[in-house]
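Fold this complex.
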Amino acid sequence: MHVILANLPLYLTGMATTLEICLYAGALSLLIGTILAGFRVSPLPPLRGVGTSWVTVFRNCPLTVVLFFMAFGFPELGINFPYFWFGTVGLALYTSAFVCEAIRSGINSVPPGQAEAARSIGLGFGQSLTSVVLPQAVRTVVPPLGSVIIAMIKNSAIVGAFGVGGDLYAAGITLTSARGEAALPVLTGVVIGYLLITVPAGLLLGTLERKVAVLR
Amino acid sequence: MTNSVLYETPGPRAKRRAFYASFGVGAALLAAAAWALIQLGRRGQLTAEKWGPLIDPTNATFATLWNFLGQGLLRTLQVAALAMALSLVIGTALALTRITSAAWYRWAVVGVVELLRGIPVVIAIFFAARVLPELGIDLPTAWYLVIGLTAYNSVIIAEILRAGILSLPRGQSEAAYAIGMRRRQVLFSVLLPQAFRSMLPALISQLVVVLKDTSLGFVIGYQEFVRQGQISIQELNNPIQAYFVIAVVFIVVNYALSRVAVFTEHRLSRRSAAGATTLAQREPVGK
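Structure:
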């Protein structure tokens, strides 16, 4: 316990960096995932193809490989970002595939009558998707989206393992490897840090779920 | 065909428009791909020197490289299989204790499940590799990876199985008790086999997750597939090409596994649908 209290600032800045990664990656993946879900139900076959192959690639490829590719492959092409952004964008791309699948299942769960009614008052595909179907779909997918987002928070530790300096995982590595502290108390602190993020996030999503639930 | 409800069945004009739009999108995609290829070519990423060892069987280093990568892939598959088998055993035990035991014990299991579900799997692996040696338990590196993966996945499998048992109709256990089975017999010969079968697709999907997560062995320096690839890159200096091939291998294996999951799901739903009709046909006999 002493180690945790003595290095509290390191843990706290670590948590802040982890939260920062999750905030950016979460927002980006929700955006990309929603657009992809739109692609996957669109009337144009090439767009459906893009959506399907994106999901197949990122769902079946380990996040580690995605991150390695971005961190070591992109510089070869002359694309250089700060490491933080490679990690965050990689995490967002990976998560967007799972977001897309969650939202698509939500679109499928909206009763067909809704879309039929939208069509019969003359709305086109884009209009009926964005103003009738998606608003309802997003409400029904809060629970699965919630577990995707919580999985993303946990996956942010992998981004940390790539040496995005100063996140919670990196704090654990610094203390155990660089300063030679005993691993058990240090890593217990890291675990508590992650639980302090994931458990409230779970509770928050539960509340959100009750608030926006659609009664059918 | 649930999606087609979102747009009208296209008439001749809409079909024509859709054709031109598809053509436009397809052309844009092809242009993007061509641009990417040109950029790759310009930066010397399409040379036989970089790709040859990976894809050209006549290349001098091809056999050595794939022998090296194959060892890694084998280790990846071994660790994944071992972690999955252990997770299944421990997960089943956890699910059963959570359903059957005394209240305080059940709460302990709930605590463990929630704790392990809330921490990142990479932390679980790192924890196993660093803390166990401190406690005097020295194992080969592979086992730390297996232990970390098992700790994380067994609780998820426990939850899957528990959901499977709880979703069975009450009549199943009632009938089993009625013919005089004991609690243990009810669980092991009636409830568990059915829960396993109905949850088989979810269990196979979890296997995909385990397989992907073995690549986290790099944090503890275990030489699985991705790590072997990394080592080969230091020699051959071809990160883009090597990670591309590694990604393709993972995608092919995992995609095949998820197809198996979908296939079993179809088979199971067909079988239970068939079961329902026979029950329905039998019903009038009782009247």
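Chain A has ten helices and no strands.
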